[in-house]
Amino acid sequence: MTIGLNLPVQILNAQTEARKEENYGAEDLGEMIKKLEPRVDGTLCLKNRSWIPYFGDLRALIMHESHKSKYSIHPGSDKMYQDLKKLYRWPNMKAEIATYVDICMTCAKV
Length: 110
Prior knowledge:
Elements: H1 7-18, H2 32-35, E1 37-38, E2 44-46, E3 49-51, H3 58-68, H4 77-84, E4 88-89, H5 93-102, H6 105-109
Parallel strand pairs: 3-4
Antiparallel strand pairs: 1-2, 2-3
Helix pairs in contact: 4-5
């Protein structure tokens, strides 16, 4: 993937926004929020995978880069999920990835 070098800053900003009390209802984090651990750079992770919150449209950016980069060549949802789950975590991740791949116009032509 070729996501820009400022991704950790974007993740930290989105995590900060998501943890504001007025934003707790934006997504159902359940017990996951209690299990998050801080990294040296200040970002939160779960089992060494970066938590990608609903804020900042980072999920779409990450899925776009993973699915449409010249190095990945439109992987299916299972392959894409297996690759992304090594680095990232968010609620309903597998379902969101499947939906993203399902609506890909290039994949629909195959």
